[in-house]
Fold:
Amino acid sequence: MQRSDVTRHDGTWVGLSLDVQDRHQPGLCVFSVGQRLLVSQQSRPVLLADVDERLAGVEFWRTDEYRSFVPPLRADVGRVLAGSPQRWAHRFAQYLVDSPDSPLHEGRWLLSCESPLQRRCRAGTSHAEYWGSMLVEGHPDGYIDWFFHAGSWEVLPLRPMPGPGDSRVKAYRKQAREGTLPPVLLWWVSGLDCHLILDGHARLAAAIAESIEPPLLQLHRTVPCDDLAARIDDAVGFYEDELARFAGLRAVHGPTVPDGAATAGPQLVRLLHELNTAAQLTWAWPLPGGEARWRRVAQEVTAGQDWPRT
Structure:
């Protein structure tokens, strides 16, 4: 795997680009059949999902089979890496690559300290209230409401969230107050239109309990390498066309018309940045056995309960 830092034009660090090769199917894999999904870790069903026929949301059933591939994070490591999302990203990238249980597969990924979740907290709303509202409730089953939370990309824990009295949460609350809390690792899954917590359930619970903004690292697919060069050429071509258009206007109307660089330049910068950062749809593999296999797994994990209800 090749990794490289992604920065803005002003040098601000945004995230870590991961170019993964020779990993054809991940250990934490999304399978699909029609409008139904199965998230499986190796052979263990982790999450079953059934998309509403009206595309208004998703019914889900969460098992207790998910296992984080991130080893326990020591407090002394948190103190050493405090305030450095870049160093945390390199550490988490190594966990993602080394573990057969991670969602990485071949292609380009971004592990970023920036998330649209952070931009949606309204002024006057406490962090405890906001992040508590972004958690999808329900165990073992629940509903991801695309109508009410359209575009807000909620957070779905892969196991029940621990309470504020949990021993791990208490330890992390101390780190949260000290400013040394390790980041929560999220994975955006387009088929669910929400983020799954890969690691950091107790850390997120601690941040909510202390009403602080949790440090985040968000993982998602980006433009693959074989498309990147062509899209860069398109962006540069757009810039050159804009300059030529303004040159034509200047030839007709005189030098009072700007040369276009002041508008086309920032657009080019934005387009090139988005090629390195914009989320691409999550890959899903056809479920072996199709609909019958999905129903059989649903019967097994729900112990024959009437689910899904649609």
Notes: Residues 225-253 form the longest helix (29 residues). The mean pLDDT is 90. The longest strand covers residues 13-20.
